[in-house]
Amino acid sequence: MSTNLRIALRFLTAKKRSMLMSLAGIVFGVGFFIVTQAQTSGFEDFFIKTILGTNGAIRIEDKIQATIFAMAAAGHDIGASKFEVAAPLEGRKYIEGVEDPEVMMEALRKFQNVSGASMVVRGSVVADSSFKNDTAQVYGIRLEDQMAVSDLAAQITRGDLEDYRRSPSGLLVGKVLAERLQLNLGDTLILRAGDQQRRYKVSAIYETGVRDIDQVRIYMHLGEARSLLKRSTGASFVQVALFDRERAPQDAAQMESVFRHGAQSWQEREKTWLEVFRALRISSALTVSTIILISGLGMFNTLAMIVIEKTKEIAILRSMGYTRQDISRIFIWLGAIVLMVGTVGGWILGASVTYGVSQLPIRIRGIFSTDSFVVAWSIWHYVVATLTAVVVVMTAAVIPARRAAKLEPGDIIRGTAQ
Question: Could you tell me if 256 and 263 are in contact, meaning their C-beta atoms sit under 8 angstroms apart?
């Protein structure tokens, strides 16, 4: 152990109570910083997982057609060959739906980052049960394709996908809609679209946790949807799943350029909610950081008092040959000891409380579904908490250290004599 460190420990024990208060503040500040970040990040990650497991990473829909006005404004001649020119967003005209989804899906599977693609035929219907009727939307799907781009299999709460797979007239009904219509497994449900009216059987009930989806969406076989909605060709959109979800904006832009259809990434689609989670994460970090800041101020006062009370000792050390740098290092060591013990204690507290919080029951239904607190275990939460503590504590230590280093033995002796 170095002499400077040994002296720092002696100075530290001279103010045990004050230092323990500052240490406790660092421990609680670092610990609660980790806990709040784990909670906000956990709910955000769970929301993203829910969205990706329901609506996919990218949705391709509506063919892009440049308007004559947009092309003229861009300086292009209005000729038959010029209609392939891409138009800016404000000048685009969209033609509803995807004309040839089979060809598009085949091409999508050649994209390196694409893990799956599923065509969907969507349409509005009126659902009649023996209890009441309600508006809904049917999603015509191929089950295997849809399972490759969503978590549909894991979202089934009642019933069996095998029953749906074997039954051409089977339906997968959202939990909220099933409750509104008082539907049980095996019940008959009449769907009306325009002048079409057909009977179907409830094969299974699913729950995504997103109420806006669970109260309107009904999955049915693609062929039945085409027949009910009188759409023999095409699709409403193609849902795409990716291996790397963070690359969705770049992949969406590339797909839009290749297929000449609008492609929207999940980041763009859920931008509002992602901004809300980001604001909550920053807000909680700033709020909890005040605990560390207050502890740092308390430590600053303690170190400043040590400088005042230990002037004689500092004079003796300087007379013995200690340099200004040595005196400064002694007080830096004081801050470093509190910092190291406080951050390690904060890590232990943060990990323990985070685990405890993850076991607490809580029922949440709305933008996602969970029955317990969701937390995210990330090393970056510990890194950011530690850096925050380093900045505050070392700043609180450096200022008194510089003041102590400036003391001259002669000035101290003269001041004492007076």
Answer: yes
Q: How far apart are CA 38 and CA 352, in angstroms?
A: 12
Q: Cα–Cα distances in Å, from 333 out to 343, 356, 400, 404?
A: 15, 34, 12, 13
Rounded to two decimals, what is the model's pTM?
0.73
- Any idea where the domains of the chain sit in the sequence? 3-51+273-417, 99-235
Q: Which two tokens stand for residue 354?
A: 């985070």
Out of 1.10.760, 2.60.40, 3.30.70, 2.40.40, the CATH code matching 99-235 is 2.40.40
Buried b (16+ CB within 10 A) or exposed e, 396-418: bbbebbebbbebebeebeeeeee
Tell me the pLDDT tens digit for each residue of 121-145: 999 999 998 888 899 999 999 999 9
Place of tokens 């893990």: 115
Q: What is the pLDDT of residues 186-204, one digit of tens each?
A: 999 999 998 889 999 999 9
Radius of gyration of the chain (CA): 33
CA distances from 169 to 132, 172, 226, 391 (A): 20, 10, 13, 65
Residue 321 gets the label, from left (phi > 0), alpha (psi -120 to 50) or beta, of left
Instruction: Judge whether 62 and 97 are in contact, CB under 8 Å.
Output: yes
Mind listing the pLDDT tens digit for each residue in 210-243?
A: 888 999 999 999 999 999 999 988 999 999 999 9
Q: What are phi and psi of 188, to 5 degrees?
A: -90, 140
Could you tell me the two tokens for 255? 């797909």
